[in-house]
Amino acid sequence: DTRNINLDRLVGNWESINLNPTVIYTEMEKAIYLRNPHESSKQASPATYKIQEDEDGFFINYNMKRTAISHDTKLDILTISVLGDYMRN
After folding, report:
1. 3-class SS letters over 5-48
2. How many other CB atoms sit within 10 Å of the CB of residue 64?
3. What Å distances lie between residue 4 and 25, 35, 40, 58, 63, CA to CA?
4. Which residues contact 73 (CB under 8 A, 6 or more apart)?
5. Rounded to the nearest 5 degrees, what angle is found at the Cα of 64, between the Cα atoms of 32 and 54?
6. How far apart are CA 26 and CA 64, in angstroms?
7. pLDDT tens string for the chain (89 positions)?
8. CB-based contacts of 75, cutoff 8 Å, min separation 6
């Protein structure tokens, strides 16, 4: 079941399969950071999205919309509904 996410397993960097912004997940803040792959870490701060949960599962508010998040533990693929799939970097 990809709706039940163990957030501890998401810690680390995730690279987009579709060349979308890189995702960094930190356990301490339980937040997802999206970093544009063409920005250096010294030039720009990543956008921060707090992971939330409701009866439908985990999500972030991305561009003012509820955006679902799921994790396939067998393939270790993180999916952010509007951005696509991410592989652990």
Report:
1. CCHHHHCEEEEECCCCCEEEEECCCCEEEEECCCCCCCCCCCEE
2. 6
3. 17, 25, 33, 8, 24
4. 6, 9
5. 65
6. 22
7. 555 788 888 889 999 998 888 888 887 777 778 765 445 555 566 788 888 989 889 998 888 899 999 999 999 999 999 999 999 98
8. none
For 43-56, give one letter per residue: b (16+ CB within 10 A) or e: eeebeebebeeeee
Residue whose tokens read 């999206």: 34
Tokens representing 15 are 């690279």
Find out whether 22 and 33 touch, Cβ atoms under 8 Å: no
